[in-house]
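Structure in, sequence out. Go:
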């Protein structure tokens, strides 16, 4: 079954006269504006209501706008430290490791930045771990994130 309107222009299509006027206005007054801002300004200043997507399509068709994807900034990798022990990265996992048989503990993992090797692990209750951090040199040099 094929609809009779297939292949015909829409009854809701905006006239070529308005389309040409909008493109002329864009080129004269709104060059450099994106389709969203341009459609807002067309409504505000010229009393022409047109959706930003319709305007985008017209501008692409007229060659005044290019399709482009916005790419995220490339993340630069930090160079590894030169000497073992210069920076230790720590990660902790707070969990009830022993279920109800003991207090919740923190499983800590330490990785040396220069070598990329794990240096040691520690399992401690949260209170004991906090006391250890406070009493060690780590608390003075820690970058806690």
């Amino acid at each position: 079954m094929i609809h009779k309107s297939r292949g015909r222009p829409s009854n809701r299509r905006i006239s070529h006269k308005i389309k040409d006027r909008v493109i002329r206005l864009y080129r004269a007054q709104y060059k450099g504006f994106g389709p969203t801002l341009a459609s807002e300004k067309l409504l505000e200043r010229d009393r022409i209501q047109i959706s930003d997507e319709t305007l985008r399509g017209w501008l692409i068709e007229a060659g005044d706008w290019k399709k482009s994807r916005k790419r995220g900034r490339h993340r630069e990798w930090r160079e590894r430290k030169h000497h073992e022990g210069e920076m230790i990265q720590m990660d902790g996992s707070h969990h009830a490791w022993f279920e109800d048989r003991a207090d919740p503990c923190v499983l800590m993992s330490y990785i040396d930045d220069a070598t990329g090797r794990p240096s040691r692990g520690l399992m401690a209750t949260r209170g004991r771990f906090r006391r250890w951090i406070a009493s060690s040199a780590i608390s003075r040099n820690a970058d806690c994130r």
